[in-house]
Design brief:
Oligomer: single chain
Helix content: 40-55%
Number of strands: 14
Shape: elongated
Radius of gyration: 33 Å
Length: about 850
């Protein structure tokens, strides 16, 4: 190679970044260039993310095809020439067969550059029908659950009215609003829970033995308030139901409860002091701080109760009022039209203003931030959805009739309908909530994974090239591969081509917005990298392989390590922390390679790793934009020998009883708990690290080659910067990129440059054009950068010899072929067009492939003429 690194220098790892079809096509071209120089057989590790996994799975499946016998055959199919005889077949005949096979494979990949809709309108209509079916299904499932909640909320006041205990609601205002009875307990919680617990904070932890004059006003205030309220009660009468009497009773209750809370908490302090032997002196600061913290937590709980009751009252009121005005015979017919018209006008006006703020203006008016817009849309859609469900609930029970002014509704009949509705929906929810397969099949994972499987893993399937119809809509046996077939065990006899395949690591992200142990919200990474490989899974920081014994570095059950899952056939053997001798095979949900690649490419879904946010999760859930996958790990976290929070037990039970609804709500509310529950939410590996370099840095290969084909039109190197930070934090690996002077000193400036030289616009030859074409966009000076990887321990001491990293960035320098320059002129963002474009036409697909091939040839052609690092 141009870096001057010997082919036998040590372990070589390639990382293929995310980037959808763009990354897959560029990687295909790059590996075709490597195949021409017979270098594929020297790759030991292949770590892929998202779009890089499309090609990685294609390459791995190509090695396993029975019609390819040696590594020479694989490299020939990708662009090389056969180098050896093939036993049992005439060489020329076999070579002709491989040439035909190579042409068919390449043509199939090119034709499926629009793998989501390769056949035009027919594919689009089918995909649209599937998406519509899944959208309706997910909302029917949610409607059952939400309707059951709203019906159950109506039961208390309906049953009280039927028993003549509460014939009419205790609070009523004039038309057109039908106020829910839940307004009373909501404001009761405010007066009797929120105010006392908030006031009690100031009464907790004061020193004993002070005089009356030294007491602060906030300490005397509850006593004075109670005395005032008591006097008011005596003045207005104990049984006065006037507003004055109600106010007096409320003030008295607030004062008394404040004193009760303060005394109940404060009296615990002497008990703690006696237990700790602190004597009768002033209480330690940490003791009083702990008591005040408990009061603050109690205050937060009271606030949560108040907000929940108020929310119930608001939606119940909105549902009853809307139904009465729109559908009730008792309501004037005009009022429903007026209300609906006013609501429509208001929504249109709000939408118009929102669009006006989002549209760019010539005078540079600032646009509404995307995060703020997401919050607005999420709140509006969720509110409309809940109000609609409340309307439907009142339509089922006719519970609105009990709230209407002057209503003569029969509470018994209303109660009967409510009980019947609750009973039926309870049965439906219990049965439907156990349908575990629904949670993944109702999203888009199945469609996405199927198209990827047929387009990339199926590209090397000889059976796909024998028939006239090669559409990705058709299922052909042999496209996909199970983990057992793709990662054959060591004792299985395989071909030489299969043995030459690199060890493929498929990277995904385990989303974790709530730490499973501390229950603290995660605000940085919000997930962990998980790599599926031939020997097991990598998850966490410290370990990636299991040994029967060994040093602390390789101990699979270290207290600060992570759960290790070595693969044993179709099972992962889970080691309970602290008990390695009790390791037992654990059933897990098997995933095919197509499913793994689909998960690794789940770029947009409810869980986005570090970019996960509540409004985006709500919007994605309501729109059923769900590409992620709930994977059953087969591991019961309750059996781990580590601290488990009390909340974990009831959450595990809830997941067992209602797996569908518990997981759906977790997606909608962005409450992902990592590996603390049996189901792990897996999404795009790029949500953790997008270059595939994390797992390679963990394994310390002598040479790491990273193909960074993620969308980076401004050349900010965002993915590379994330890898550098994580490598330094997690593995003590310092990735130091060489500057132009260091590269020139090594004699490698003919191929490599600094990161700055990779940026667009740094090439003075940026006006290079094709004949008769307009000037091309600014160009770069180099395609490649070189870095040292230095591993250090916690004391800053070097742990291993330095390694080398070759960074490959798709760039244009002006020396490429005329067709590439013409495409750049017509498409200025090439080679970093949007990842949202997953429908490559022939020109686009061929341009990315040829750029990859050109850059690989450039990197390999000068490898033996310069001395370099070894």
């Amino acid at each position: 190679m141009a870096a001057g690194i010997r082919e036998d220098a040590g372990v070589v790892g390639f990382g293929l970044s995310g980037g959808g079809i763009r990354s897959a096509t560029f990687a295909l071209g790059f590996f075709q260039g490597l195949a021409r120089h017979r270098l594929l057989r020297h790759i030991d590790f292949l770590s892929t993310v998202s779009g890089g996994g499309y090609f990685g799975a294609f390459l791995g499946r190509l090695h396993s095809r029975p019609n390819l016998h040696t590594a020479d055959d694989v490299e020939f199919v990708l662009g090389g020439e056969p180098q050896a005889d093939h036993p049992g077949a005439d060489r020329k005949q076999f070579t002709d067969h491989l040439r035909t096979y190579r042409r068919d494979v390449l043509r199939y990949l090119r034709e499926n550059g629009r793998y989501l809709s390769p056949n035009g309108s027919g594919d689009t209509l089918l995909g649209g029908a599937i998406l519509l079916r899944n959208l309706v299904s997910i909302h029917v499932a949610l409607a059952f659950f939400v309707l059951l909640g709203f019906l159950a909320l109506q039961l208390p006041y309906i049953l009280l009215a039927a028993a003549d205990i509460l014939r009419v609601p205790p609070l009523r205002i004039r038309e057109p609003v039908l106020v829910s009875p839940y307004v009373v307990p909501a404001f009761a919680a405010l007066a009797l829970m929120v105010v006392p617990t908030g006031w009690a904070y100031w009464l907790v932890g004061h020193q004993r033995g002070v005089t009356l004059t030294e007491l602060r006003l906030q300490v005397l205030a509850p006593v004075l308030l109670t005395a005032f309220a008591s006097g008011a009660i005596l003045l207005f009468g104990l049984w006065d139901r006037s507003p004055h009497g109600l106010l007096a009773w409320s003030l008295a209750a607030v004062g008394i409860l404040t004193l009760v809370v303060a005394v109940a908490v404060d009296t615990r302090l002497p008990v703690r002091l006696r237990r700790t032997g602190a004597g009768s002196g002033p209480p330690p600061p940490e003791q009083t701080a702990g008591l005040r913290l408990n009061v603050s937590r109690l205050h937060l709980l009271a606030l949560a109760v108040f907000v929940a009751l108020l929310g119930v009252a608001v939606f119940d009121t909105a549902g009853a009022t809307a139904y009465w005005h729109l559908f009730s015979d008792e309501a004037p017919p005009v009022s429903g039209l007026v209300t609906a018209g006013a609501a429509l006008v208001g929504l249109l006006a709000a939408a118009q203003q929102t669009v006006a703020r989002l549209a760019p203006r010539a005078e540079g008016r600032p646009r509404l931030p995307a995060r703020a817009l997401a919050w607005i849309m999420a709140i509006v859609l969720l509110t409309l959805y809940l109000v609609l469900m409340a309307i439907l609930a009142h339509g089922i029970t006719r519970g609105y009739s009990l709230l209407a002014p002057g209503s003569r509704a029969d509470p018994v009949a209303v109660g009967g309908r409510a009980l019947a509705g609750v009973a039926v929906l309870t049965i439906v929810v219990l049965l439907f909530g156990q349908l575990r397969s629904f949670i993944n099949r109702s999203g888009h994972h199945a469609l996405y994974a199927a198209r990827l499987t047929r387009a990339y893993l199926g590209a090397s399937n000889p059976d796909r090239h024998r028939g006239a119809d090669r559409s990705v809509l058709h299922i052909v046996a042999g496209d996909d591969a199970t983990a057992e077939d793709y990662f054959p065990p060591a004792d299985r006899t395989v071909s030489a081509a299969w043995r030459a395949a690199p060890l493929h690591l498929v990277n995904v992200t385990v989303n974790e917005t709530i730490d499973g142990r501390s229950q603290v919200q995660q605000r940085d990474r919000k997930g962990s990298g998980l790599a599926f490989g031939p020997c097991g899974m990598s998850l966490g920081v410290r370990h990636h392989v299991v040994h029967a014994g060994g040093s602390e570095d390789n101990d699979p059950v270290a207290a600060d390590g992570y759960q290790v899952f070595p693969r044993d056939g179709d099972e992962y053997r889970a080691f309970a922390l602290g008990t390695p001798d009790a390791a037992q095979p654990t059933p897990w949900e098997p995933l095919s390679m197509g499913a793994l690649v689909g998960i690794s490419g789940a770029a947009f879904t409810t869980g986005l790793g570090a970019r996960t946010s509540l409004p985006i999760s709500v919007l994605c859930a309501l729109a059923n934009i769900r590409l992620g996958y709930w994977w059953h790990s087969g591991v019961d976290p309750g059996q781990r020998h580590r601290h488990q929070p009390p909340q974990a037990n009831w959450r595990r039970q809830l997941e067992r009883v209602f797996p569908v609804y518990s997981l759906l709500l977790a997606e909608m509310l962005a409450r992902f708990r990592g590996t603390s529950l049996p189901h792990w939410y897996l999404s795009d590996g790029g949500h953790f690290e997008n270059l595939g370099g994390y797992e390679l840095i963990r394994r310390r290969p002598a040479l790491t080659v990273l193909l960074d084909a993620e969308a980076d039109p401004d050349y900010t190197f965002h993915g590379l910067a994330g890898l550098i930070r994580k490598a330094r934090i997690d593995f003590g690996a310092d990735i130091h990129f060489l500057d132009a002077g260091e590269i020139a000193t090594m004699g490698l400036d003919h191929a490599f440059g600094s990161l700055e030289q990779l940026r667009r616009g740094r090439n003075p030859a940026g006006t290079v054009t094709c004949e008769g074409s307009p000037a091309a966009p600014p160009l770069s000076q180099r395609h490649f950068a070189l870095a040292r990887v230095i591993y250090t321990d916690e004391r800053g001491l070097r742990k291993a010899p330095e390694r080398w990293l070759v960074y490959v960035k798709p760039t244009m320098t002006g020396h490429e072929a005329p067709d590439l320059m013409e495409y750049l002129t017509s498409n200025p963002t090439f080679p970093h067009q949007s990842t949202g474009d997953q429908f490559f036409d022939e020109n686009q697909w061929e341009s990315y492939r040829m750029l990859g091939t050109y850059m690989a040839e450039l990197l390999c052609s000068e490898g033996h003429s310069h001395a370099g690092p070894e």
